[in-house]
Amino acid sequence: MQQIDASPFPFAFRPETTALIVIDMQRDFVEPGGFGESLGNDVSRIGRIVPTVKRLLEGFRHAGLPVIHTMECHRPDLSDLPPAKRGRGNPALRIGDAGPMGRILIAGEPGTMILDELAPLPGEIVIEKPGKGAFYATPLGQELERLGMRQLVFAGVTTEVCVQTTMREANDRGYECLLAEDATESYFPEFKAAALAMITAQGAVVGWTATTDRVLEGIADAR
Ligand code: TIU
């Protein structure tokens, strides 16, 4: 086993069983006019992590370790959108409505795309998910089993919503999970801090956290 210098204690991993999962780095959450702003959020702080997420992505690619991207989105006919989700939050624009970047959070629309700087490379797995967690109603679990993964490093947005939900789903499925703390962000700094504390409390009850520099150091000699 190799180690990443992490909180609350070192994260043990085998490079051949470790993947990066980048959660929902989509225009809809980062750019004005998208889903995040429609919920009443100031989206400006989210974009600041893009260079750090990019460094993490490139580190995994360079080490030859799998990279998986997720996208929160729905079918154009909204058949995978529960009415409870469409109505939630009293948003200015609802999921499926036409906004400045196309229909909000609908697969294939410009606003739903992953940011150009972080775009998946050919061969990288992209999971489209209708929920906050990336395991619900998706093939993520089968893909991870097919690849033989056991340890998962997470990045993306938002920390306490889709990232934390997915980490909890993964933790319950037996994966050892680490969140790159400077490659994730929330619309609410206090919620990000609380999520990091919840994850690592009680001896890593959900998982570990570490900076991107420490993760990159850990995987540097993976090849
Ligand atoms: N609202 C919010 O903070 N997040 C989401 O709706 N989705 C994700 O976190 N991707």
Annotation keywords:
single chain, 223 residues, alpha/beta, 6-stranded parallel β-sheet, two-stranded antiparallel ribbon, 21% strand, globular, binds tricarbonodiimidic diamide
Our Rg estimate from Cα atoms comes to 17 Å
- The N- and C-terminal alpha carbons lie at a distance of 14 Å
Report the strand count.
Answer: 10
Which term fits the overall shape?
A: globular
Mean pLDDT: 97
Strand content range? 15-25%
Biggest sheet statistics: 6 strands, parallel
Count helical runs.
Answer: 8
Ligand types: tricarbonodiimidic diamide
How would you spell out the order of helices and strands? EEEHHHEHEEEHEHEHEH
Low-confidence stretches: none
What oligomeric arrangement do these chains adopt? Answer: single chain
What topology does this entry show?
Blueprint: E1 2-4, E2 11-13, E3 18-23, H1 27-30, H2 35-38, H3 50-63, E4 67-72, H4 83-87, E5 98-99, E6 102-103, E7 125-129, H5 140-147, E8 151-157, H6 159-172, E9 176-185, H7 189-204, E10 208-210, H8 212-219
Parallel strand pairs: 3-4, 3-8, 4-7, 8-9, 9-10
Antiparallel strand pairs: 1-2, 5-6
Helix pairs in contact: 3-8
Bound molecules: tricarbonodiimidic diamide.
Tricarbonodiimidic diamide binds near residues 158 and 161.
Characterization of this structure:
The protein has 223 residues and is an alpha/beta fold. It is built from 8 helices and 10 strands. It has a 6-stranded parallel β-sheet, with helices on both faces. Helix 7 links the parallel strand 9 and strand 10. Helix 3 runs parallel beside helix 8. The protein starts with a strand and ends with a helix. The model has no long low-confidence stretch (mean pLDDT 97). Bound molecules: tricarbonodiimidic diamide. Tricarbonodiimidic diamide binds next to helix 6.
